[in-house]
Each structure stands twice: as structure tokens, then as C-alpha cells.
Design goal:
By secondary structure, this protein is of the alpha/beta class. It is built from 20 helices and ten strands. The chain has helices spanning about 5-15, 20-35, 40-55, 65-80, 105-115, 135-145, 160-170, 185-200, 215-230, 245-255, 275-280, 290-295, 310-320, 325-330, 345, 350-360, 365-370, 375-385, 390-410, 420-425; strands spanning about 95-100, 125-130, 150, 175-180, 205-210, 230-235, 260, 270, 335, 340. The strands form two sheets. An eight-stranded mixed β-sheet has the order 3-2-4-1-5-6-7-8, sandwiched between helices. A two-stranded antiparallel ribbon has the order 9-10. It is globular, with a radius of gyration of 23 Å. Residues about 285-305, about 325-350 and about 410-430 have low confidence and may be disordered.
Length: about 425
């Protein structure tokens, strides 16, 4: 999606001096990279001016070099451009999926059902696509594969009747309705979606759209919102589209929040949208060789970090293992972007901050520590109140956890061995 931005940042990082010429060249390179990703030109121009203006200010934040300051600005601006992290409530609900032909609605219906099933909610799928002959068989097969309930009427032409009957027949926690698509949002599709909406009364109405439409996503999001009042977007085919960045940015600018992204054909190739993950991928990963040397100095076996899913509990254990040792600051200096210290908002994990994070995590339930994705707005407010902190501090903790998890997920236990260092670095894109 934004593959070239990483190269541009690394090129800047390799320069000996971060002077005005180097900053201007970095801005020019990022402009080119964003336009190639089909981000709106006016947004690119606005972002470029902000980076240039803030990067060349005379006063530097305490403790940062000019180069580190510039990288921090780039990191923060890109994260702002990509919008807010999605908040997906893990609770019983009804979901309506809509979109045009070829967007991947049926596969997405299965992925969302599987997402909730893994979080111990019983999902059900309703095939309200009575236009496409293969829709019934495809959705039924998906439901069988993931262990979800299914309802459809193969030979009916009335989607409203299917939805009514599906609601009555299926006893599930999360009911997901796959509606029909069209080549365009014409009057017939508008009317059909409006009628389904009235019958179903869904809590969530998701527009499903492919990443390859780029900045045209804004027009599509606004059109479907006018037709049925969408409150979320699922962007599919993010694994193959160079225009994925444009689609994500366009959705955010239209006011439609991105809830999920599809990254492949398998049922588990669905992620809750988190711009932090994208920026972390864009700007590169740490010098893992140096980092492993620091990890090996701890009492913890580095292979234990990679056993099973990396949870908030693992994150807490790793932070506490370096508290009081004086190692945290040294370790953070081993997490560079192209050979330089990563932005301050990642690296500023002081021992005071670690202590604050521990208090926050002590206010979480075991379920939340095991699966932080369930931490909704209401849960984060409860955690903040219980720990005497703010919701922003809770979100900051989860953000740092996800950045760490993103790194850990890049390599496997076998790669921890010295002989596999080259393979591990390749997985990190280094």
C-alpha cells in the first residue's frame, strides 16, 4: 500500500545531516509516494506543508535530535491522515452488509461471523442476495466451514421475506445479513436496502468496498450513507491494492469510519482497523539483532515471548522485567527507523510510564488482558476510572502494546536462533 514511504524515510535517515535540503527532499518523496497510493492531491499538499513547517522549527523538543524530530512529525502526521482506530463492540447485534458487485460482501460476511465466533458470540448468516445465483451456495458453504448458523431461500426472489424469516429462524447473538449488490447504486438498490433496513433494524450498517477504488471510496461512502445511513466501512482486498491507502484516507475524509480491513481470502484475514499498525509497517521495524542481545540479558527466555499469542499480560511481564534495571532506555535506543531512534511517542517508555501502564493493566479484567481487542469505549472509561488515569492514557497503553505485538508477530521461535538472523531480518523487511 504505502511500501515506498518506508524507502523514503530510510533514505532520509541515512543522511548525515537533517538540514533544510534533506527535509525538503523527504517531503517531496513522501508527496510522490502518497499520490501513487491514490491519496487526494489536496490532502497531500496540506500534509506536506505541515511536515515542512514543523520539521524546520528552530526549537527542538528536549532530548531529540533534528532527525528524530522530523521522523516523529512524519509518524504523527501519517497516523492522523489515516484516521482513528476502530472501536468494535463485542456484544450481541445485527449487522447489514451492503455494497456494489465485486466488493467481496459474501466473503466478508463470513469473516465477520468468524471474528465474533472467536470472541464467544454465536453468529448467524442470512443470504438476502436473491440476485446472484451462486450467493446462496457460497454463503451456506462459508457458514458450514466456520460453524455459523445459516438461513437462506434458494429459489425466492424476495429479499425482504428472507430477512424476516431469517430473523425468526436463527437464534444467534450476532445476525449478519448479506445483501445484493449492483453495478451502481441505482434507485432499485436504494429502495431494496431501505426496505431491508426497516425490516432488520440493524445496529451496524457496513459498506463493503474494495481497496482498488482508491480515493473514489469517498464518493461511494457518501452515496451509500445517503441511501441507508451507514455507520462503518469494511475495506477489502488490502493485500493486493496499491490504492489501499487512498481508499482508507478517502473513507476517513468522508466521515465514514473504517471498522475492518480484509487482507486475504482466508476467514481469519480480517483485522480491526488500526492506523498505528499501518504507520509502524510503513516506517520500518527495529534492528532486531541488537534488540535480541538486550533481551538475552534479561532473566526471561526470549523464546517464551513467542510462545502462543502475545497478550497484554506478556507485554506487562516484559516491561516489568526491565523496570529498575536501567535497561529500558538502552533497549528503546535499539528500536531505530533506518538506523535512527524511533519517534518519541513510541520510544518514550520511561520507567515512570511503565509504572503508570502497570496500574492501568491492574484495572483490567483477565478477559481484557487476554484479548485487548474487546476493550471498547465503555470498557476503557471503566479502566481509566479504576486506575485513576484518563481514557487517552488507556488508549496510549494499548497503542504501545500493539506496536510491540506487531514486531513480535513478524518472526517465529525458530528465527530466535543466531543462525536464522538473516531470515528473521528479511521477514522484517530489513
Amino acid at each position: 500500500m504505502f511500501d515506498k514511504i518506508k524507502e523514503s524515510v530510510q533514505k532520509f535517515s541515512s543522511k548525515s545531516v537533517a538540514d533544510e535540503e534533506a527535509v525538503n527532499q523527504l517531503v517531496k518523496d513522501i508527496q510522490r509516494d502518497l499520490i501513487r497510493a491514490d491519496v487526494d492531491v489536496s490532502l497531500v499538499s496540506e500534509l506536506s506543508d505541515e511536515i515542512r513547517e514543523e520539521a524546520l522549527k528552530e526549537d527542538l523538543p528536549k532530548g531529540l535530535s533534528r532527525k528524530e524530530h522530523v521522523l516523529e512529525i512524519v509518524y504523527n502526521k501519517l497516523e492522523e491522515l489515516l484516521g482513528e482506530e476502530a472501536e468494535v463492540e463485542i456484544e450481541p447485534k445485527t449487522i447489514l452488509l451492503c455494497g456494489l458487485y465485486g466488493a467481496g460482501k459474501t466473503t466478508t460476511a463470513g469473516k465477520i461471523a468468524d471474528f465474533y465466533r472467536k470472541r464467544e458470540l454465536k453468529p448467524g448468516l442470512v443470504c438476502a442476495d436473491t440476485d446472484r445465483p451462486a450467493a446462496y451456495d457460497q454463503l451456506k458453504q462459508i457458514a458450514e466451514n466456520i460453524g455459523a448458523e445459516f438461513y437462506g431461500e434458494k429459489h425466492t426472489e424476495d429479499p425482504l421475506e428472507v430477512v424476516r424469516n431469517g430473523r425468526e429462524e436463527l437464534d444467534v447473538d450476532v445476525l449478519i445479513v448479506d445483501s445484493a449488490g449492483r453495478n451502481s447504486l441505482n434507485e432499485n438498490l436504494r429502495e431494496e436496502l431501505s426496505e431491508i433496513d426497516e425490516v432488520l433494524e440493524p445496529e451496524d450498517k457496513y459498506l463493503v468496498m474494495p481497496a482498488d477504488i482508491g480515493q473514489s471510496a469517498r464518493d461511494q461512502a457518501e452515496s451509500f450513507d445517503e441511501a441507508v445511513g451507514i455507520n462503518g466501512v469494511v475495506v477489502t482486498k488490502m493485500d493486493s491494492s496499491a490504492k489501499g491507502g487512498g481508499a482508507l484516507v478517502a473513507c476517513q475524509r468522508s466521515g465514514a469510519s473504517v471498522n475492518f480491513i480484509g487482507t486475504g481470502e482466508q476467514m481469519d484475514d480480517l483485522k480491526v482497523y488500526d492506523p498505528v499498525d499501518f504507520v509502524s509497517d510503513m516506517l520500518g521495524q527495529p534492528d532486531l539483532g541488537s534488540l535480541l542481545e538486550k533481551i538475552e540479558e534479561m532473566d526471561t527466555d526470549p523464546e517464551d515471548i513467542l510462545e502462543g499469542e502475545f497478550t497484554l499480560k506478556d507485554f506487562q511481564d516484559q516491561m516489568e522485567s526491565v523496570t529498575g534495571s536501567g535497561m529500558m532506555e538502552e533497549m528503546m535506543q535499539q528500536l531505530p527507523i533506518g538506523g535512527n531512534q524511533i519517534p518519541d511517542n513510541i520510544s518514550n517508555l520511561t520507567e515512570e510510564k511503565i509504572g503508570s501502564y502497570s496500574v492501568i493493566m491492574d484495572s483490567m479484567t483477565n478477559e481484557e488482558m487476554k484479548d485487548p481487542s474487546i476493550i471498547s469505549k465503555s470498557r476503557s472509561e471503566r479502566i481509566a476510572e479504576g486506575s485513576g488515569t484518563t481514557r487517552g492514557e488507556v488508549r496510549e497503553l494499548i497503542k504501545h502494546y500493539r506496536q510491540t505485538k506487531n514486531m513480535v508477530d513478524k518472526f517465529d521461535k525458530g528465527s530466535m536462533k543466531r543462525g536464522n538472523m538473516q531470515d528473521m531480518l528479511q521477514k522484517l523487511g530489513m
